[in-house]
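Tokens in:
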């Protein structure tokens, strides 16, 4: 179970720039909490489900935040080094494509 939750947290970090994916991760977190009968986590996911898409679209999602109810909804957190490398590589690739156009 801990491995599955950690995977959701990491997916959350990677999805924050994309409204649909970001909301989808919160929905998956809600479903995971429901299956575990974790009422605290389910309640914590409800405002996140409402705010995920607007936060992504407006660039206001707190970077590195793992998305669970155990962390503040607006608190930025350090991004794990392996994910930071993936995000930086993706950003560089996007920039190169934009310049080529």
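Residues out:
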């Amino acid at each position: 179970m801990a491995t599955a939750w950690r995977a959701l947290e990491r997916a959350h970090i990677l999805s924050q720039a994309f409204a649909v994916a970001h909301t989808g991760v919160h929905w998956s977190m809600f479903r995971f909490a429901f299956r575990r009968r974790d009422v605290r986590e389910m309640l914590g996911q409800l405002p996140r489900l409402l705010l995920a898409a607007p936060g992504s679209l407006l660039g206001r999602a707190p970077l590195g935040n793992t998305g669970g109810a155990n962390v503040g909804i607006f608190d930025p957190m350090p991004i794990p080094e392996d994910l930071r490398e993936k995000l930086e590589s993706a950003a560089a690739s996007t920039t190169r494509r934009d310049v080529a156009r």
